[in-house]
Write a structure and sequence with these properties.
Radius of gyration of chain A: 25 Å
Number of helices of chain B: 22
Number of strands of chain B: 27
Largest sheet of chain B: 7 strands, mixed
Largest interface: B-C, 83 and 77 residues
Strand order of the largest sheet of chain B: 5-4-16-15-14-6-7
Shape of chain B: globular
Strand content of chain A: under 5%
Shape of chain A: globular
Largest sheet of chain A: 2 strands, antiparallel
Oligomer: heterotrimer
Helix content of chain A: 40-55%
Strand content of chain B: 15-25%
CATH architecture of the largest domain in chain B: 3-Layer(aba) Sandwich
Distance between the termini of chain A: 67 Å
Strand order of the largest sheet of chain A: 1-2
Radius of gyration of chain B: 29 Å
CATH topology of the largest domain in chain B: Rossmann fold
Number of domains of chain B: 5
Structural class of chain B: alpha/beta
CATH class of the largest domain in chain B: Alpha Beta
Structural class of chain A: mainly alpha
Helix content of chain B: 25-40%
């Protein structure tokens, strides 16, 4: 009997609207978040410390090689031009002396400073930067391992992306296009130095002192920022560029 | 408040419609489709800077100068080295697969000591060194070295070590260089290392030498051929192949002269007969004796019987050689010093010694380790003969860069039985490593220092050294470096502690070796030639080598099985090729299963009827029949090296007259 | 079928008289394009190991040979017998037979350069294209790619790894083309006017006898443009009118005749008809 009354009470459309709203809101608000998990980068990297602090240029690390390919993540060897740790084995030995074994040298990261052999190598001044630099040296430089950075702009192996082909594209050109151009809209103002990195990459990364978590799609493993094929194709079409399969695929 | 059926349905319908206006379904479908494109077991690619690093690969017999392609410092492929005269951008099918071999599970992972039949125990390099030092100390001078390194300075290190231990039992694995060295430097008393200026010649006769596929500096020979035959233009020179069957070399040569396997020396001497008839002569004191030998045993009519080459064809070929402005004859068959000597004689008669486009004698590159044997002496010892006679019975035998248990004609399997303690320096788990008492893993060519000193056949002094491209991923080291360390451990002074320094010294020595040496006034090796008229009268075996199948030391590499034709190998059965006439005579047809036997050994095969084989000849591929290695070669086909019948002639062992029987199974 | 015309037409001229059949090109091709060696047992797939073995490399219906070297002979008896070797990449046909039959547009000929593309994630493995290709240039992945333990460390960066169930074929080492264009841009050269030698497939580079010449058939400065016009040049099954971008040349008449595999007597009329049909 109670159910009967309830039904009359709520009328015809209300449950319908309620259902519609609950699911629509959940689909738009909650779903995008549950699809992704945050993965922290191997350690915090501060562009500010390098660009403002040390006066480095973007091209010092991210440049076109002679063969026209683009150097994205710098290698340990390039980092070591400044972060010179000398003989890695000596450092490992010194750390092993503190932790008791060369197998667990990463335990020194539990403390904020020391030993002397490590402190001596630190170039940073800010406490957060120091911790990050300690992690870089102990986990990667000392052990001769390249840093397994997560690439926010991850693309699968079947995609060939040429930075060189896009190097001369200016933000103004993209902003002037008719029709939607997604991420470019947000970036239109930024054209001071002529680079167009903001088109695809984390906005104004050079002004950031942190490395936001990598948002990994739980199903595909792709990044939340991975540009999809339709986005590539839309811009190619707008720019009157070919959308032939082999323009982007390998 | 409650929920009745009606409200529930309304709620559900609303929810369903709500779902349709959200990205949930579409995004999920999209992601699921991407998920199906990225299975966890499909490996992903490496990114990073791409480079091409010059290096040397000695996996093939003559060694390839090449570039290793790397991504992020990790090798992924090889390509020829345009700047290197040995390569000019090309490479061979073995070295094209050199990088995958770096991480082959077939590599020897670390030093191992044999503890029983097929049982091995890993040891450290230090333990291995101490053990070997002890064994050598006890063996005194009863030590031998078997080397399969045809080109490197590593030979000098092992040779010097052997000399310091008081032994001169340095054995080289049989090779075309051995035959030519025994003929020229031995029988004929000549000076220097024989080479052929194929690139400069306008008429090249390959007598038995499979020079565009497996003989000599193969890639360099192929370059010479390519340049003389520009695409779309008239050829600048004529290439003729003489041999018992059509092979890779003959398929591109301008003509093929079928010559019976037992008649290669006679064929060359027949040419000499024609040249002398045309008025050619030699300054040699042996010339008169040569003339009478030719007259008595190698007249065109006799040669026709021995070789199957008609008097007319022979005379025509001789005529072409005479009319050419820069002819050269490259002769090699069955490691026979007689064939090599006969070839040299033809070149001398043509006046082609140390001339542009002719045969050259390069000055020896002086040894840099004082007590090391010089090159000709290294090739003097005769391994098959000494194994057969029992003279080979060392207490310790060091096997460097060779796989004699597999690749030594007829006697391979006896090597480890005759030596008390066998040490194999092997990069891969090959047949020799499988029976050695101590297995020392040699670094892969891209992980070690190594060099090529005048790869046999080159026309100019050639030296290429190479340093490691990549750090070893396994507990391995360069064999010569270990030999230097071992000498230091035993308190022997070889003059060097570091192989890299040996290479530096060798590079200087190579720079000093310029021009050519040698003269026409040499002996003619007549004793070796006088019995080249013998034939077995039976079916003759023509064993041929193709690098994509492998070599005497290398098995088929991982990417080469797809290059092997289904008329060469079918599953585990190899094919031998015979002429339809031979098939008929033996009651065989295409696909017949047969048993080949020679000197008490048998091989099974299927018949491939091929009109490109002379009647009376069985053409069988070398390189199959491995009992070790991996699935790409193990148990596939039969080992034809075992069928080769070694005969001791003057000048050394050869296998030119390999009688074989073929029986239907 | 309508034909797209391209400013650049990458092509090969293969001099059969110079191919010794050594196999270096086939190996280089496999290494460059991440074609896994044919291992028969998959240590990670227990079910398969218990039931059946993967294919043997002598089963030529199951090998993945983007570039395959065929052996030809003139059919004559000893001693007139002659042998030739014919390397067969994808012909990158002008009127490809494979493209129109693809139900999902996984293969297309639409990029400047005229290379017929094959997009693996899009392929549904129906194999219509394989049935359509008269050159047998297309291959199906009957098995997942499997490298012997550790060997996948040496993967080439130039080709994505294909899973089981898709079709693949030679694409003239297309990633090398992309890289050549990047290099040209870096050096200030117009990527539409690549000088000869900037872009070379792996097989061409490896060949020790220089039997394969590669370049832009539309660029008179490239050697292939002249060689393709040689009286000794021909294309395989020319009478089908597929207009391949791969040319062959041989001074031996019997080789040229086999290249068109014609029934005796119909050679000229067939070629004529085919060319009329397309003009």
């Amino acid at each position: 009997m109670e159910e009967m009354r309830a039904s009359k009470q709520y009328g015809g459309a209300l449950p319908f609207l309620l259902g519609f709203l609950v699911v629509a809101v959940a689909g738009w608000v909650l779903f995008p978040d549950i699809l992704f998990v945050d993965k922290e980068q191997p350690f915090r990297f501060s562009h500010v410390a390098h660009v403002e602090g040390q006066g480095m240029l973007c091209e010092d690390c991210h440049y076109f090689r002679e063969d026209g390919s683009f150097a994205g993540f710098p290698t340990n060897e390039e980092c070591a031009m400044c972060h010179d740790i000398g003989d890695p084995q000596e450092l490992v030995d010194a750390l092993a002396e503190v932790t008791g074994s060369p197998d667990n040298i990463e335990d020194v990261l539990k403390q904020e400073e020391g030993p002397e052999a490590l402190d001596y190598l630190i170039l940073s001044a800010e406490p957060e930067d120091i911790q990050a630099e300690r992690a870089f040296i102990v986990k990667y430089l000392a052990q001769g391992k390249e840093v397994p950075w997560y690439n926010y702009q991850f693309q699968p192996d079947n995609v060939f992306f040429s930075h060189k082909a896009h190097a001369d594209l200016t933000m103004a050109q993209v902003a002037a296009l008719e029709g939607g151009h997604g991420e470019a809209e947000a970036a239109e103002a930024d054209a001071e130095d002529g680079t167009n990195c903001n088109l695809c990459h984390l906005e104004d990364i050079h002004l950031r002192s942190d490395t936001p978590p990598f948002q990994e799609n739980v199903m595909t493993g792709y990044s939340k920022m991975t540009m999809k094929m339709w986005q590539c194709e839309r811009c190619h079409a707008q720019m009157h560029q070919s959308n032939a399969c082999y323009v982007c695929h390998k | 408040m409650g929920l009745n059926r009606r409200a529930f349905i309304q709620f559900s319908v609303g929810g369903t419609l709500g779902l349709l206006v959200t990205p949930v379904i579409w995004k999920t479908l999209d992601d699921v489709s991407i998920w199906t494109q990225n299975w966890g077991w499909i490996p992903t690619l490496k990114k990073g800077v791409e480079e091409r690093v010059p290096a040397v690969s000695k996996l093939c017999p003559s060694g390839c100068a090449l570039r290793v392609e790397t991504v992020g410092g990790e090798p992924y492929s090889t390509t020829g080295d345009e700047d290197n005269p040995l390569s000019k951008g090309g490479l061979c099918p073995i070295c094209a697969d050199a990088v995958p071999l770096l991480y082959s599970p077939t590599r020897v992972q670390g030093p191992m000591v044999r503890t029983g039949e097929g049982q091995y125990q890993p040891v450290s390099w230090d333990e291995a060194k101490k053990l070997l030092a002890e064994k050598l100390g006890a063996a005194g001078s009863s030590v031998a070295v078997i080397s399969g390194d045809d080109t490197g300075s590593g030979n000098e290190v092992f040779s010097a070590l052997l000399a310091e231990l008081g032994s001169d039992d340095y054995y080289m694995m049989p090779s075309p260089q051995m035959a030519a060295t025994r003929a020229w430097n031995g029988l004929m008393g000549g000076e220097g290392q024989i080479g052929y200026d194929i690139a400069g010649s306008d008429f090249v006769l390959f007598a038995g030498a499979d020079a565009l596929s497996s003989w000599g500096p193969t890639v360099s020979n192929m370059n010479a051929f390519a340049e003389s035959h520009p695409a779309g233009e008239k050829a600048k020179s004529t290439y003729v192949y003489a041999g018992p069957a059509r092979n890779h070399t003959s398929s591109v040569c301008d003509s093929w002269v079928p010559v019976h396997p037992e008649g290669m020396s006679a064929f060359l001497l027949g040419l000499a007969y024609n040249l002398i008839t045309e008025g050619r002569y030699l300054e040699s004191g042996d010339f008169a004796a040569l003339r009478s030998l030719l007259a008595s045993k190698y007249s065109p009519a006799q040669v026709e019987k021995l070789t199957g080459v008609s008097k007319k064809s022979l005379a025509e070929l001789a005529g072409k050689l005479l009319r050419a402005s820069a002819p050269v004859v490259v002769a090699d068959y069955g490691c026979s010093p007689a064939v090599a000597a006969a070839g040299i004689i033809v070149n001398l008669l043509l006046g082609r010694m140390n001339t542009w486009g002719g045969m050259v004698a390069l000055p020896e590159v002086e040894p840099v380790l004082g007590s090391a044997l010089d090159r000709p002496t290294r090739f003097a010892k005769d391994l098959p003969a000494d194994v057969a006679s029992g003279a080979f019975a060392p207490k310790v035998c060091l096997i460097y860069d060779a796989n004699p248990v597999y690749g030594l004609p007829q006697y391979g399997e006896k090597i480890a039985e005759k030596a008390e303690f066998t040490v194999a320096f092997s990069t891969f788990k090959d047949e020799t490593a499988a029976v050695a008492d101590l297995v020392l893993p040699a670094a892969h060519p891209f992980e070690r220092y190594d060099d090529l000193v005048n790869p046999f056949g080159v026309a100019n002094t050639t030296y290429v050294a190479s340093s490691p491209v990549v750090k070893p991923s396994l507990d391995v080291m360069g064999a010569p470096q270990f030999a230097l360390d071992l000498a230091a451990e035993m308190g022997l002074d070889l003059g060097f502690e570091n192989f890299e320094e040996v290479l530096e010294a060798k590079a200087e020595a190579a720079e000093a070796a310029v021009g050519t040496v040698g003269s026409y006034s040499v002996g003619l090796g007549l004793p070796a030639l006088s019995d080249a008229d013998k034939t077995s009268g039976q079916l003759a075996l023509y064993a041929y080598s193709q690098l994509h199948i492998g070599s005497a030391s290398m098995a088929t590499t991982p990417h080469n099985p797809t290059t092997i034709r289904d008329t060469e190998l079918q599953g585990k059965q190899m094919f031998v090729r015979i002429n339809s006439e031979t098939a008929k005579a033996n009651g065989l047809k295409a696909g017949s299963k047969v048993r080949l036997s020679a000197n008490g050994v048998e091989c099974q095969a299927l018949v491939h009827v091929d009109e490109g084989v002379m009647p009376g000849v069985v053409a069988a591929p070398l390189g199959f029949g491995h009992t070790a290695w991996d699935e790409f070669s193990m148990g596939k086909g039969g080992n034809v090296y075992k069928l080769l019948t070694v005969s001791a002639g003057s000048g050394g062992s050869a296998w030119t007259g390999s009688a074989v029987t073929i029986a239907k199974m | 079928m309508q034909v797209k015309e391209f400013k650049i037409k990458w092509g090969m001229v293969i001099d059969i008289d110079k191919c010794s059949g050594c196999g270096a090109c086939m190996v280089s091709c496999q290494v460059e394009n991440n074609i896994a060696p044919m291992t028969q047992e998959d240590p990670h797939n227990h079910l398969q190991m218990m039931t059946t073995k993967r294919d043997d490399p002598s089963n030529k219906l199951r090998t993945l040979t983007w570039l395959n070297v065929y052996e030809l002979n003139n059919g004559k008896a000893f001693p007139e017998h002659d042998v030739a070797y014919l390397p067969r990449p994808c012909m990158q046909c002008g009127h490809p037979a494979c493209v129109p039959v693809c139900p999902v547009v996984a293969t297309d000929k639409n990029e400047e350069g005229g290379i017929v593309s094959q997009i693996y994630p899009r392929c549904i493995g129906c194999r219509y294209c394989m049935a359509a290709c008269p050159y047998h240039a297309r291959y199906f992945n009957w098995w997942d790619p499997l490298w012997p333990d550790g060997m996948d460390k040496t993967l080439s960066p130039n080709a994505s790894v294909r899973p089981r169930g898709v079709v693949e074929k030679c694409n003239f080492c297309h990633t090398r083309y992309m890289k050549a264009k990047d290099r040209a841009r870096e050096e200030g050269i117009d990527p539409m006017e690549l000088p000869e030698g900037y872009y070379v497939p792996a097989c061409v580079e490896a060949c020790p006898t220089g039997a394969i010449v590669f370049g832009d058939l539309n660029n008179p400065e490239h050697k292939v443009a002249q060689l393709a016009k040689s009286p000794h040049s021909f294309r395989l099954l020319e009478k089908l009118g597929l207009d391949p971008q791969v040319y062959y040349m041989s001074k031996r008449e019997w080789v040229r005749e086999q290249g068109d595999n014609h029934a005796a007597g119909d050679h000229n009329s067939a070629v004529k008809q085919a060319s009329q049909g397309h003009e």
